[in-house]
Design a protein that fits this description.
120 residues, mainly alpha, 2 domains, 5 helices, 0% strand
């Protein structure tokens, strides 16, 4: 979770898209540049990394990746299992149909029964 629980829940539960600016602001990306600056910026970073002490870079990358694996492994496996279970639900078929038909989805699981009349 790179951006905190509140933002994580917001984007995962709503399915809202994240703009490049928002991804940069909440720390999901390391930098944003206009398309014409993408390759020059990537090459600039690559040159800087190529000139750095390689053993230190590798060790740092290994340590950071291990930290992510340790922090996320249990949650990741659980998340994958739940996601696979969701693929068996009828909502998946409705989502696919909505995309193919270029319309808003009407997920069966989101259809709430009518509320009983209010008593005064």
């Amino acid at each position: 979770m790179l951006c905190g629980m509140a933002k994580t829940k917001l984007y995962l539960l709503t399915g809202d898209f994240i703009s490049a600016e928002e991804a940069d602001k909440i720390g999901l990306v390391s930098a944003t540049v206009p398309p014409e600056r993408c390759l020059p910026k990537a090459m600039e970073v690559a040159r800087k990394l190529a000139k750095a002490p390689q053993h230190a870079l590798r060790s740092t990358k290994l340590a950071l990746n291990q930290w992510v694996r340790d922090a996320c492994l249990k949650s990741f496996d659980y998340s994958c299992a739940l996601e696979m279970l969701n693929f068996t639900e009828e909502d998946v078929h409705e989502g696919i149909a909505a995309i193919q038909q270029k319309r808003a989805p009407a997920f069966p699981s989101a259809q709430l029964p009518p509320l009983p009349p209010a008593r005064l």
